[in-house]
Design a protein that fits this description.
The chain is of the alpha+beta class. 30% of the residues lie in helices and 27% in strands.
Length: 202
């Protein structure tokens, strides 16, 4: 569970944008706030990822990600959003877990401090990504534009991650532009008719 609204907002932003980007690929599973169990028969070994992306697994509802039921494919990319309640020890343990159980890319963002960290698998280990400014994920091809102000994420097509409210506003602006263009065309057609010109012939 998210600790606060800011952490939850970031989890939703990442999960929803990646879900939308891979909507037409049936072999990419994207989830947020889902428990991952990597070892069959040992439910104590688990981790609640803020967001995960798994290539090679079908979409669908899951109560948890039980790796042995998923062709033993570990999530390749994992995101964590640091909340005020997260201790450094807890975060260190998560890094060890992701390293041990096969994650290829791990990203940790602290929205309160605007601090972004990342790790990339190099053989058996997750090595720190340095520098991470304008880093492009090898798997996802998304870009992390991290500055002194805020983290911006960009899809492979260059479009920035957006919230549902931003998408609603964008759709409304497009609707208003379309309405204005339609009204302008109607006025022009009327003016042509007044002049005795058939608008269809123009």
């Amino acid at each position: 569970m998210a600790d606060d609204t800011r952490q939850f907002r970031w989890i939703v932003l990442i999960q929803q944008n990646l879900e939308a980007w891979y909507a037409n690929d049936p072999t990419v599973f994207v989830a947020g706030d889902l428990l991952w169990y990597p070892v069959e028969g040992d439910p104590k070994i688990r981790q609640a990822t803020d967001a995960m992306v798994v290539f090679g697994r079908p979409k669908g509802e899951r109560g948890s990600y039980q790796q042995w039921r998923e062709d033993n494919i570990a999530p390749q990319v994992v995101f964590e959003i640091r909340a005020p309640g997260n201790s450094q020890t807890e975060l260190d343990k998560k890094l060890i877990f992701y390293e041990r159980y096969g994650v290829e890319e791990y990203y940790l963002y602290d929205p309160e401090r605007n601090d972004l960290s990342g790790w990339l698998r190099q053989e058996e280990w997750l090595s720190p990504i340095d520098p991470i400014a304008n880093w492009v994920s090898p798997r996802l091809e998304i870009r992390f534009d991290w500055s002194d102000y805020d983290l911006q994420l960009y899809l492979p097509n260059g479009v920035s991650f957006t919230t549902l409210e931003q998408e609603r506003q964008r759709a409304e602006q497009e609707r208003q532009r379309a309405d204005a263009a339609e009204q302008q065309a109607a006025r022009l057609a009327e003016q042509l008719r007044v002049l005795g010109v058939d608008p269809d012939q123009v």
